[in-house]
Amino acid sequence: FFSQLSSHCDNVYGIDINKAVVESLNNNKIQTMHATDMKFGSDYFDKVCSFEVFEHIPDLRKAFEETYRVLRPGGKFFISFPLEIIRGQAALLGAFCIHKGPFHARQLHVHKLTPNKIKKITSGIPFKPIVSSVFYLPFTSFVMVLEKQ
Fold this sequence. Notes:
Layout (H helix, E strand, L loop, with lengths): L1 H5 L7 E3 L2 H7 L4 E3 L12 E7 L8 H11 E12 L9 H8 L5 H4 L6 H7 L5 E9 L5 E8 L1
């Protein structure tokens, strides 16, 4: 997604907690960083995008607080997360690749998220949900857009 986004904007930055992956990308606009402790200044971004990431983050509240902090007033947070009936079902392939079996899928997806759960987690953080939908391709995911008030 990074290269697609950066083809439309001049100032696109990416973060990932996996230092080896970040180093292999050899791009100074992608940095090793955790979503719960971003090194960007407050009110830094007009938009923040997170595609299929938040279900992996143990401290969701802190990640949403950090996202809110780095967004400018009126900024938009685009987030997608898998629609799962059972937590970890969308991580089965990853569990096979990483752990050589399906029984570690719940270690990869530490949360089963829904738009209602996101609204509960962000209670008290002045995000305004402006879009909530289901996206079906290439796999079924929820998509939300939250606006910083």
